[in-house]
Amino acid sequence: MDTINEVKKQEVYIEKIKEINKGKTLKYHILTMGCQLNENDSEKLCGMLENMGYVKTDNFQEADINLFNTCCVRENAEDKLFGKLGELKRVKEEKGTIIAIGGCMMQEKHITDKIKESYPFVDVIFGTHTLYRFPEDLYKALVEKKKQEDILDIDGEIYENLPIKRDSDIKASVTIMNGCNNFCTYCIVPYVRGRERSREPKEIIKEVEELAKKGYKEITLLGQNVNSYLRVEKEKGKSFEEYQGVNSFATLLRAINKIEGIERIRFVSPHPKDFTDDVIEAIRDCDKVCKLIHLPLQSGNTKVLKEMNRRYTKEQYLNLVDKMKAQIPNLTLSTDIIVGFPGETEEEFEDTLDVVKKVKFEQVYMFIYSRRVGTPGDKMENQIPEEIKHKRFDRLKALVESQIEENNQKYVGTIQKVLVEGTSKNNEDMLTGRTDSNKVVIFEGDKKLINQIIDLKIVSEHMWYLKGILTHE
Ligand code: SAH
Ligand code: SF4
Ligand code: F3S
């Protein structure tokens, strides 16, 4: 596939729609569900729409285009989409708003079938592999007034140079790879995002350099398995061009660390099984790489991990944590945990609690196991009753919260480097920023401090944020 020409072709459709919209003030509303990869995709969709002349609105009722970028990693996302579609029906009838739905959920046939049957007023459906083609699909829906369904069930390609309208002027996400080859047995992502494929080193470096020129201070590198960046390419002998010494995730971190203007580098998500020594060394050596590392655990029990196809044991995970802590000064960790995977016994769940107690994570994202159609987990017979799943979730939550409180206490009295992001949502007179370890800090200060890294003394802790004061005026 000639991806460069495909993107150029889409630019022509953007221009055509811009011409149609000339002289009118048309608005779009976008609802994004799911992970940071989806948020980054939405920034690309916003870029396309704004280049067509549409202006963003937060009110879906006044929008000429209502766009959804969907997630299907857990069931609640589906309830949310169908609820919203119900509300939109009236807006469609009264105003004729165009309704377009894209993203991961659209790669599931049972979902698109349901939309066509129960919500026939939806105009455009597109998938993860056809996001770049949204301008063409929208154009056809607008001009030919025909419903568009544009979904491909393929391994996927990489499309560079799509338009982009970023959410922030300070922090930016950069997707370094798409897809996933791991097939954890609970997870739908490999089925809806296709096979793992990495962007060319040069394209990533170019994007980060441009962001630095624009004044961005923090970069988050995104992928489902970032520390296997370029692995598939090397294994399958697919050609890629080494650029500035980049031929792996570790060398990518080192190259980005050299880019002037960028002050913080984060990445999500690495996989414990691929956490090689060169990555640990790169994190240690690169001063800009934040020392909060997200290291998804999923379960603390070796048998459950095996059933999940995670390819590490409880001991291997704990050894990795020890090794990382020994080599990287001031390292903190965050994680993802699933409770109630099929067959998980009480004792096995307690292994998860045990790992949480031992590692003392800075942050834990907790999930109740959700059956996903088409995954091996869904076919397992020993599903855990909802009530037990919820009870385990509550026990884990209580433990995590008590640990977070204890951990927050450690910040009180310390001086932290904080990247100031803007005014606080709840109080216009206060500023908000984040520490290296991604903790929110609220403080009083001049707005000219926004987009700077400053020293703050932490004076109190409040579960989900810290309060700070300037160390000097
Ligand atoms: N690639 C990343 C995460 C992708 S999805 C990784 O491997 O860590 C984000 C998180 O959602 C996962 O880490 C997992 O904890 C959770 N998740 C995925 N599938 C799930 C399911 N079926 N039920 C509940 N949680 C799930
Ligand atoms: Fe899902 Fe596992 Fe891939 Fe993460 S690594 S996206 S959890 S299959
Ligand atoms: Fe959801 Fe797709 Fe991300 S399923 S978690 S939006 S990759």
The main pleated sheet reads as: 6 strands, parallel
Query: What is the strand content?
Result: 15-25%
Summarize the amount of helix as a percent range.
25-40%
Strand order of the largest sheet: 2-1-3-4-5-6
Computed Rg: 23 Å
Q: Which class of secondary structure composition applies to the elements?
A: alpha/beta
Please identify the top-level CATH class of the largest domain. Alpha Beta
CATH topology of the largest domain: pyruvate-formate lyase- activating enzyme
Count of discrete alpha- or pi-helical segments spanning 4 or more residues: 15
Question: How does the overall form come out from the CA principal axes?
Answer: globular
Explain how this protein is built:
The protein has 15 helices and 19 strands. The protein has 473 residues and is an alpha/beta fold. The protein folds into 3 domains: 3-150, Methylthiotransferase, N-terminal domain (Rossmann fold), CATH 3.40.50; 171-408, Alpha-Beta Horseshoe (pyruvate-formate lyase- activating enzyme); 415-470, OB fold (Dihydrolipoamide Acetyltransferase, E2P) (Beta Barrel). A 6-stranded parallel β-sheet has the order 2-1-3-4-5-6, with helices on both faces. A 5-stranded mixed barrel has the order 15-16-17-19-18. The protein has a 3-stranded parallel β-sheet with strand order 7-10-11, sandwiched between helices. Helix 13 (346-359) runs parallel beside helix 15 (386-411). The longest helix has 26 residues, at 386-411. The chain binds S-adenosyl-L-homocysteine (SAH), iron/sulfur cluster and FE3-S4 cluster.
